[in-house]
Amino acid sequence: MFTQVLLDLAMYKQPPYATLAIMSISLVLGITTSFIGVRSMDLEQYRRLMIDSSRARKELMDATRSGNQRKIDKAQKKQSDLMQQQSKMSMDRMRSSMLFTVPMLLVWPTLSRFFGDTIVANFPFDFPYIPRELQFIQWYLICSFSMNVILNRLFGLTFEIDPED
Questions:
Q1: Which residues touch 165 (CB under 8 Å, ≥6 apart)?
Q2: CA 39 distance to own-chain centroid
Q3: Concatenated DSSP letters for the chain?
Q4: Angle between helices 17-40 and 69-115 in degrees, nearest 10
Q5: 102-107 long-range contacts, Cβ below 8 Å, gap at least 24?
Q6: Interatomic CA distance for residues 148 and 25, integer angstroms
Q7: Cβ–Cβ under 8 Å, residues 100 and 33
Q8: Tens digits of pLDDT across the chain (165 residues)
Q9: What predicted TM-score, i.e. pTM, was given to this entire model?
């Protein structure tokens, strides 16, 4: 029975199944992480804080250019207050990420052992610092980073600040 299960899973050790399986794993983990991030923080407050921080940086630059020490001190105080708020919010977000990291650290050795040093994906062209043949860790990191950028944007965890805001 156990041998049959291992034989059935063996096809996932080679491309294209390994490639797709690792993409799926990174997608599921990315969605889970983004969902935890959304649930653990007030996105509207986070967005306001980022906009206010952007304005404070601009005010500080303008005050520095003007040379008015009173304006500079006021802008530095405002920026310092906003940085403290950002720090608190970042710590809250980091705590929620840790809730997800611990279980992943338990699963990671199993995945590494299963895939081993097998080539699981082939990069389609030569690119500096990226080998043509990718092992599990390399392919997972590429998938994870690229999917997290997209998922964080979709879940509203990152956004562009409009210059008029």
A1: 51, 54, 55
A2: 16
A3: -HHHHHHHHHGGGSTTHHHHHHHHHHHHHHHHHHHHHHHHS-HHHHHHHHHHHHHHHHHHHHHHHHT-HHHHHHHHHHHHHHHHHHHHHHHHHHHHHHHHHHHHHHHHHHHHHHHTT-EEEE-SS-BTTB-SEEEHHHHHHHHHHHHHHHHHHHTTSS-PPPTT-
A4: 140
A5: 104/29
A6: 12
A7: yes
A8: 556 555 577 888 888 999 999 999 999 988 988 888 788 778 888 888 888 888 888 888 888 888 888 888 888 888 888 888 888 887 877 777 776 677 778 788 888 888 989 999 998 888 888 889 999 999 999 998 999 899 988 988 776 666 555
A9: 0.73
Taking the C-alpha atoms of residue 89 and residue 12, their distance in angstroms, rounded to an integer, is 40
Rounded to 5 degrees, φ, ψ at 16 are -85, -10
The two tokens of residue 64 are: 């520095």
